[in-house]
Amino acid sequence: MNPSAFLSTLGGKKVLLLTHAGADVDSFCSAAALYFAFRFHADLTIGVPEHINLSAKALARNLGIPFILSPENLDEFDRAIAVDFNSFDMLGGMAPALKAFKKPILVIDHHSDGRERISVKALRVIDPACVSTCELVYRLLSRKHKHLNAEVAVLLAAGIIVDSAGFTVASPETFTIMSRVLEKSGKTLPEIVSLFKVKADVSEKIAVLKAARRARIYKSDERILVSTDVGAFEASAASSMIRLGADVAFAGGESKGHLMVSGRANNHLVVKTGFDLDQHVFKGIAQEFGGYGGGHPAAAGYNLSVAGNLSVAGSPDGKTIEKVLERCIQLTHAYFKEKSRGLGSQLIEYP
């Protein structure tokens, strides 16, 4: 069975549209686009493991899109479609439930194969050359134009805007698809952006400023690497470090037994050197400490449930985040050192 045939079998079925843990806009919009394309033909549920990010949550609220956090009883579903991930380690606490799911699964993703790949028996639509998973969903839905309505087009446009970082990372196909869905949506670009735009509140501004104050600054040859421990808004903090001049930045926080790290890299650096936060940093971090990581060359993240995790045993003093951030810096430096064949490559921390 091919992916198009799989979609044609959804009629009358109970289907789970599953994002990765901490769903971002591309992941949520991919699921939501499928929801609006097939909602009159099947009984569809959007499932989001563990938590949803603020931008995706705002979009869901503004468009009235229903979803369930960490859905239970997966046996009640006849089919599952996994979007924007291809590895069990991107599901957090929901991984065992999907591993036990014995019914047909379709995987739609634009990431390279993860550490714990979803069953080879699953149908797979994977293309790492795509900027966003929404582009892959467009390819599938555009084969039958009746599925590509205005609601679907708005969602696909939103996912593409976010994962292309406002088109700073985009292929010719990205612009072609964006032109088509924008026209179909009947909305302007600013109108679509307003659906997921989250205005920084006072607490976020304070967190970002504290992140700058706590920053540890390193020099790896001519590149500036930064790590900072912040209690919340890790993604905003890491992005702010890049805007302040860092080439690569990591912002992490540890709270209530849960640890998160967001990584950001300068797009020019990524294109010039081939550096990839997901492949060269967070995959190694997940192997060493447990947990799961994923994302893109210039924007990626890592999550770990600290409580009871054997990989971080002996760190009951709340210092786990320091160790993880230090390792992020070391792995980043190791990549650049290898690229320069070790010639004059030193990691220097500024006081």
Q: Please, could you describe this protein's structure?
A:
The chain is an alpha/beta fold. Helix content is 41%, strand content 20%. The chain is built from 13 helices and 13 strands. The chain has a seven-stranded mixed sheet, with helices on both faces. The protein has a six-stranded parallel sheet with strand order 3-2-1-4-5-6. Helix 4 links the parallel strand 4 and strand 5. Helix 6 runs antiparallel to helix 7 and helix 12 packs across helix 13. The longest helix is centred in the C-terminal third of the chain and has 20 residues. InterPro entries: DDH_dom, DHH_sf, Oligoribo/pAp-PDE_c-di-AMP_PDE. It comes from Candidatus Iainarchaeum sp. It holds the Pfam family DHH.
CATH superfamily of the largest domain: inorganic pyrophosphatase (n-terminal core)
Radius of gyration, in angstroms, nearest whole number: 20 Å
Poorly predicted runs of 5 or more residues: 313-318
How many helical stretches?
A: 13
Q: Secondary-structure element order, as H and E?
A: HEHEHEEHEEHHHHHEEHEEHHEEHE
Strand order of the largest sheet: 11-12-10-9-8-7-13
The CATH topology of the largest domain corresponds to: inorganic pyrophosphatase (n-terminal core)
Shape: globular
Number of strands: 13
Structural class: alpha/beta
In this structure, how is the largest beta sheet organized? Answer: 7 strands, mixed
How does the SSE layout of this entry go?
Blueprint: H1 3-8, E1 14-18, H2 25-38, E2 43-48, H3 54-63, E3 68-69, E4 79-83, H4 95-99, E5 105-109, E6 123-126, H5 133-141, H6 150-163, H7 172-185, H8 189-196, H9 202-214, E7 216-220, E8 223-229, H10 234-243, E9 248-255, E10 258-265, H11 267-273, H12 277-289, E11 292-295, E12 299-305, H13 320-339, E13 347-350
Parallel strand pairs: 1-2, 1-4, 2-3, 4-5, 5-6, 8-9
Antiparallel strand pairs: 7-8, 7-13, 9-10, 10-12, 11-12
Helix pairs in contact: 2-3, 2-5, 2-6, 5-6, 6-7, 6-8, 9-10, 12-13
